[in-house]
Structure formats: C-alpha cells, structure tokens
Specification:
The structure holds two protein chains of two kinds. Chain A is mostly helical. Chain A contains twelve helices and no strands. Chain A has one domain: MetI-like fold (Orthogonal Bundle), CATH 1.10.3720.10. Chain A is globular, with a radius of gyration of 24 Å. By secondary structure, chain B is mainly α. Chain B has two domains: 52 residues, no CATH class; 226 residues, MetI-like fold (Orthogonal Bundle), CATH 1.10.3720.10. Chain B has a two-stranded antiparallel sheet with strand order 1-2. In chain B, strand 1 and strand 2 form a beta hairpin. The two termini of chain B are 23 Å apart. Classes of the chains: A mainly alpha, B mainly alpha. Chains A and B meet through helix 2, helix 4, helix 5, helix 6 and helix 7 of A and helix 1, helix 2, helix 4, helix 5 and helix 6 of B.
C-alpha cells in the first residue's frame, strides 16, 4: 500500500507539494518585503531611500511634533471606536434577524446585507457624498462615521451569523423552560456563546475603519481628517521619510489588533460542535 | 409572536442600510440624469420625469471610454493573476498544511491588515525612481536616471492591484479546498486519472464555489480602485475610479460623476448578480 502510494507520488509531479510550498514561501516574501522596507527606512537617519545611513528616530520626532498628524491619529481612533460600537450592535441584530426570522423579509434583508460587501467602495462613497450634500450636512468626522458604519455592518453580520447558525436552539429553549424570558435566555445563554464572534467582528471593524481611505476621502470635510486621508494628501505632494514613520506606527497599531483577532478565531475553532456525521456507505 | 420578535431585529439595521446605502445609490442615479443650478447645487432628475440624457452622451463619447476599458482590463488581469497564484497557494495550505494550516493562512493575510495606502506607498519606496531597487541597480553599475523606470507603467498598476487584493482570492479558495472531501482526489487517482484529469474533473469542480467568490471579491474592488493607478501609474493608466475621484474631489461637474458611477455599476452588475445568486444558492444548501 505505502509502496504504491510512494510510487504514485513520484509519478505525479503535478500534485507534489514541494513546488507549491516554494510558491507559498515566495508569496509570503513578496507580501512582507515591501512592508519591511517601509519599517526599516522609517529608522533611517538620512532622507535617502537608497542609503541607510544609520539608526535614528528622527522621522518619528518629526511626526510626533506635527500637530496635524497627531490630531489625525486621534481622529482615526475616534472614528474607529464609534464605528466599532454602532456597527457591531447593528450587525449583530441583523445576524439574529437573518438566522431566526423566516419568510420574505429575511430573504430581502439577506440581499440588502450582502450588497454593500460587494459594491465597490467608491460607489457607496459617491452616494454618501451626494446624500450629505442634499441633506445639507457639513462634512466632518461624524459623516465619516456614518459611512464607515454603513460598510461595516455586513462584515459583523457575516461573522456573527456563521457562529449563530451553529448554536443549538434547544439550550435556549431549556433556559426558557426553566423560567427565563425569551430576552433573558438570549442574554444569559445565547450572547455568551456568541462573544468570541462578536469580539472578533468588533476588532475587524475597528481595523477596517482605522485603515479606511476611500469612504473617508469622499466624506471628510475641511477640518481634521483621519490618518489615511492625511497620508493621501501627503502622498500627493510627494514621498517623504515622515510617511515611513507614520506608516510604521499604523502598521504597529493594526497588527496589534490583528493579532488580537487570532486567539479569538482559534478559540472559535476549538469550541465548534462536531460536524454532523453522515453514515458512510460501506 | 416569537417570529415577530426576531423580525423586529431586522428593523434598525434594515433602516440604516436603506438610508445610508440604498438611498445614496438612488441619488447617484438621479444625479446622473440631472444638472446643476447656478450655485452649483445638484438638480436631481428621476428617470422618466423630464430626464436629460446629455450626461450619458458625454460619458459614452470617446474621452471616457479608455478609462472604462483600462479598469476592465486591469481588473481582469489582476483577477487572473490572483487566481493563477492564489489557487495553488490556497490548495497547498489546505491540503498539506496539517495542524498549522490556519496559522499559515493567517501569515499570508497578515500583510492585508497593514493600511491600504501604506501598502501602495511601500511600492513607491521600493520601486520609485529614487527608490530602494533603483539604488541597488545603480550600485551594480546600471546607468540611467533612474536605471529602470518601474512606476508609471501599466504593469506597476496591475502589480499594485494584485498586491492589494490577493488575500481576497486565497481565503475563499482555502475554505473551499478545506471543506472538500480529500478522498475524492484519492478516488480520482484510483480510477487512473492523471493528476491533471483529477484536478480538472474532481478538485476544481468541487472547489468552484470558492473560485467564484474569490474572482468576484478581487475583480469588483480592483475595478473600482484608484489609489494604485494614481500613485503607481501615470495619467496614461487612469482607471475609471481616478476619473470619478477627480470629478468629486477636484471640483468637477457632479452630475457627470454620477453618470460615470452609474455606467461603472452597470458594467460590473453582471459580476454582482452572479455572486449574489451563488451566495444565495450556497446558503440554501447550507441551511438545515
């Protein structure tokens, strides 16, 4: 048996993973190298991108002494925090509605939920800009938050719904048999089981909002703008080493959040109920 | 009674999406048939109510067609490249990754968490005229200023798009290969299928859902992208996103921007409908 398998393995170069692992490694390098270069050159003491003259925090000092950029960093946190809270609540409500309400309303709500996920962001951003113009709302951080919440709801719903549809309804019914009200059972039984999914989607939304650029560019006004918008206007002027320092700071923040996501997803894996077994035909 | 409770959960998010997603889409359509008053405010015109097709005539005249064509071409190239490389990578992780396969995927998508503009900017640092690579090439004795002009070309734009959206191809294919019953492949081999035949008739059809999701999730944002073309390309590589962005953020004629957006949406509508139908089918099959 094993000899046959080995023979077959040798014969089938196509399926041989060694070449494919090389491809995987090459892709990892390709994906990481540009980012590493930005990080390395953020510590360069000279302005050049071609010569690394020595280690220095010069560009971080420039960035830290630039009140505009500091305000933008604070604004980004503000927008991301508000977006996270509101979008997580709305998205979780939508997930419950989609999983548990049956009928026509659920079907159209499902399509309404999926559409923002696949609409190119520039389209929704243009629409929001027109809406705010029509209503007469001056563009500010608040309008950016409205835009971010709108595209974030669906991400929350997709993640929470996946977990919710795996939950066993009988546990909730048992709680109600023991005297819990429907909302009580939801709070005491269902929500705790959903916390990892809700927390993961909240973190993801924070990162999405913190990094968002297209919606922010279209819905930001004359005042303080979030960091990606600030970077955009810096880039239009030209490349400056200060951007390396700003970029590295953003990388540190978002990667810390992304690493926070990791244990949540792994925890979900471990608590997943076993897949329903299908009797195998002998 | 109980059904009423769960349905009521749909109301707040539903109203939110109606107000901030559907209504804006309607406004784009109305603006596309409209004009502006003497103060520059947009005058919305609803279809069939005194509408005006002049914006559409302008858009479909020659000036804007190259940008549409480039968006389509660049997005298709990006999607093809992502599929060509993303499929084998996702496949090898899902089939041969063993216990660490989730970790291997996380490593691959971790760069995606880095801010989008910083990732575009990283390529300017690396490949710009005064960038890192040109510095090396100069040290190696290549002449010219710069030794090689990487940026400002169409393949820099496609490379940037590929870099931006590659994870969107890997994730759904990875999920599909992982779900696939690997004994199917064994069966194909036992039936003396060559590796290529096994792939064509067994593996690929079994993971087709993931491929569809990946293609759509890469194609749609790539077609609407503008930062890659703006910073890695040149005016000669302008995509439709660049034109729309300039119209709205550099004081262009707003109704025309609406028309451009509508034309763009019509162009990609087939992809969106395709995805929604396949997602609806998947959720029906997945339902108990």
């Amino acid at each position: 048996m094993s000899a046959v398998t080995a023979e077959r393995k040798r014969r089938t170069g196509f399926d041989r993973p060694r070449f494919l692992w090389a491809l995987y490694t090459a892709m990892c390098l390709y994906l990481f190298v540009p980012i590493l270069v930005v990080v390395i050159y953020s510590f360069n003491s000279s302005k050049s991108l071609q010569v690394f003259s020595g280690l220095s925090f010069r560009w971080y000092r420039t960035f830290w002494n630039d009140p505009d950029i500091k305000n933008s960093l604070v604004a980004s946190f503000e927008v991301a925090a508000v977006t996270m809270v509101v979008a997580t609540i709305l998205g979780t409500l939508l997930a419950f509605g989609l999983v548990r309400a049956r009928g026509r309303l659920g079907g159209s709500a499902n399509i309404l939920m999926l559409l923002p996920l696949i609409t190119p962001e520039i389209v929704t951003a243009v629409g929001l800009l027109l809406l705010f113009g029509l209503v007469g709302t001056p563009l500010s951080l608040k309008t950016i938050m409205l835009g971010h919440i709108t595209f974030s709801i669906s991400y929350v719903t997709v993640i929470v719904r996946a977990r919710l549809s795996l939950l066993n309804r009988e546990v909730e019914e048992a709680a109600m048999d023991l005297g819990a009200t429907e909302l009580g059972a939801l709070r005491l039984v269902t929500l705790p089981a959903l916390y990892p999914a809700i927390a993961a989607s909240a973190l993801l939304v924070f990162v999405l909002s913190f990094d968002d650029f297209v919606t922010s560019v279209f819905t930001s006004g004359a005042g303080t703008s979030p960091l990606p918008v600030r970077i955009y206007s810096l880039l239009r002027v030209g490349v400056s080493p200060e951007i390396n320092a700003v970029g590295t700071t953003m990388i540190a923040i978002t990667l810390a959040l992304a690493l926070g996501l990791l244990p949540l997803t792994l925890w979900r894996r471990n608590t997943e109920p076993p897949a329903p077994t299908v009797p195998a035909p002998e | 009674m109980r059904r009423g409770l769960w349905s009521s959960f749909l109301v707040p998010p539903g109203l939110w999406l109606a107000a901030f997603y559907l209504a804006p889409l309607g406004l784009i359509v109305a603006a596309s048939f409209g004009s502006v008053d003497f103060l520059g405010r947009v005058l919305y015109k609803w279809p069939f109510h005194g509408w005006d097709l002049s914006n559409y005539h302008t858009v479909l005249s020659s000036a804007y067609l190259p940008a549409f064509f480039r968006s389509l071409l660049f997005a298709l190239l990006t999607t093809g490249l992502c599929l060509l490389i993303g499929y084998p990578v996702a496949y090898v992780i899902a089939r041969y990754g063993g216990r660490v396969r989730h970790l291997l995927v996380v490593v691959l998508i971790l760069p995606w968490f880095v801010d989008y503009l910083i990732r575009v900017y990283a390529w300017i640092v690396l490949l710009g005229d005064n960038g890192v690579v040109n510095g090396w090439l100069g040290d190696l004795g290549m002449h010219g200023d710069p030794p090689v002009q990487f940026l400002g070309t169409w393949f820099a734009v496609v490379g940037g798009l590929f870099y931006s959206y590659f994870p969107f191809m890997v994730l759904p294919i990875y999920a599909a290969v992982e779900r696939m019953d690997s004994s199917l492949v064994e069966a194909g081999k036992d039936l003396y299928g060559t590796p290529w035949q096994t792939f064509r008739h067994v593996t690929f059809p079994a993971t087709f859902q993931g491929v569809v999701a990946g293609v759509v999730l890469v194609f749609l944002p790539a077609a609407g992208d503008f930062a890659n073309s703006e910073f890695l390309g040149s005016p000669d590589t302008a995509m439709i996103g660049n034109v729309i962005n300039q119209t709205f953020n550099a004081g262009g004629y707003v109704p025309l921007g609406g028309t451009l957006t509508v034309c763009f949406m019509v162009g990609i509508a087939a992809f969106m409908v395709f995805y929604l139908r396949s997602a609806a089918r998947a959720s029906r099959e997945g339902a108990m």
